């Protein structure tokens, strides 16, 4: 897309802090109603990018457009942005309803209208019954929903979420992820989510933007990126663990669950290449076992279901063509 229908657009945006270039020439277009996930390892520039969109940080170069307007130097409160932080930042002395209505009150919205919008926002996040409680009387997941409702109630042009699920325990995180997907779909609100969790991005995003040292390493729909990472960096970040050179293919990667382990005496299979190797280690993981193979001095990981395999056994590691991804070397 050329970005003309984008709610948020970044054009060659950079941000330096002294010698550190936190964000380095990022172009980004976030279409209306979509969810874009900014993703990458610690220090890659996710939060700085989000803070520049929110207006808490100024770019040292480039431009930011919101709703088609140049917002590069606009104050945060003039940007019509809803934000949810890791810490939720709820007001402890205010009830849930007052927390959710806070942004509307400071914007001078009439009392009746505030009541209607607070009700709708609490309904959307499934908290209508708890509107009179204070934040300390809520679970982490419920506080999270209040923060979301508060951000949505102002009807922002864009909702910015900075690692919103990272303070929740693993089970709740998975539940809230599904809930966030539903809320975003139902509200149709344009959303930018910062996360270092690739599963979260894969599940939620219409567009994934993977950052590496402040630059866009790859951007696209999860279904495009996941099967075809453009570089070793992206592949590693998406959980591809095997990197090896295959004749006719050059440098390739393959996920452990796609490597097959056969008896050494088996013939080369159709539709794939294979290598003899030795099992150096087996880790039982409940639903499968992770088998570490030494293949001519290279380490190959294979996730196998049934395992009467033993350490020290000679085997054949098979790399099926349709799961082998070529990488630039
Ligand atoms: N105010 C600042 N002053 C100096 N350096 C900064 C500042 N803010 C960020 N940086 C640096 O910019 C780089 C990018 O930081 P940023 O917080 O954007 O990364 P991140 O991808 O959000 O990381 P994390 O996942 O750890 O939060 C890092 O090297 C960081 O140390």
TrEMBL record:
GO molecular-function term, one example from the UniProt record: ABC-type quaternary ammonium compound transporting activity
Keywords: ATP-binding, Cell membrane, Ion transport, Iron, Iron transport, Membrane, Nucleotide-binding, Transport
Record has Transport as a keyword: yes
Domain annotation ABC transporter: ranges: 8-238
One Pfam family matching this protein: ABC_tran
GO CC annotation terms, alphabetical: ATP-binding cassette (ABC) transporter complex
Main enzyme class: translocase
Official protein name in the record: ABC-type quaternary amine transporter
Species this chain originates from: Planotetraspora thailandica
């Amino acid at each position: 897309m050329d970005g003309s229908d984008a709610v948020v657009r970044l054009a060659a945006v950079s941000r330096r802090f002294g010698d550190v270039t936190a964000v380095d020439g990022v172009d980004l277009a976030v279409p209306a109603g979509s969810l874009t996930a900014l993703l990458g390892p610690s220090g890659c520039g996710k939060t700085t990018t989000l803070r520049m969109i929110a207006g808490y940080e100024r770019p040292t170069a480039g431009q930011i457009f919101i709703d088609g307007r140049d917002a590069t130097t606009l104050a945060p409160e003039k940007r019509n942005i809803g934000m949810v932080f890791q810490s939720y930042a709820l007001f402890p002395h205010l009830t849930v309803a007052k927390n959710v209505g806070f942004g509307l009150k400071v914007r001078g919205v009439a009392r009746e209208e505030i009541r209607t919008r607070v009700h709708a926002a609490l309904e959307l996040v499934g908290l209508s019954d708890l509107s009179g409680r204070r934040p300390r009387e809520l679970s982490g997941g419920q506080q999270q929903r209040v923060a979301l409702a508060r951000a949505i109630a102002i009807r922002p042009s864009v909702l910015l979420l900075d690692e919103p699920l990272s303070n929740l325990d693993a089970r709740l995180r998975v539940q809230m992820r599904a809930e966030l997907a539903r809320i975003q779909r139902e509200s149709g609100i344009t959303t930018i989510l910062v996360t270092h969790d690739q599963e979260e991005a894969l599940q939620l995003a219409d567009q994934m933007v993977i950052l590496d040292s402040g630059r866009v390493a790859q951007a696209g729909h999860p279904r495009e990126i996941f099967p075809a990472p453009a570089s070793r960096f992206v592949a590693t970040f998406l959980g591809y663990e095997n990197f090896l050179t295959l004749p006719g293919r050059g440098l390739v990667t393959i996920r452990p669950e796609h490597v097959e382990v056969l008896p050494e005496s088996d013939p080369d299979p159709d539709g794939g290449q294979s290598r003899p190797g030795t099992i150096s280690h087996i880790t039982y993981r409940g639903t499968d076992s992770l088998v570490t193979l030494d293949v001519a001095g290279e380490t190959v990981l294979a996730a196998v279901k049934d395992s009467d395999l033993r350490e020290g056994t000679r085997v054949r590691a098979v790399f099926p063509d349709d799961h082998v991804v070529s990488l630039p070397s």
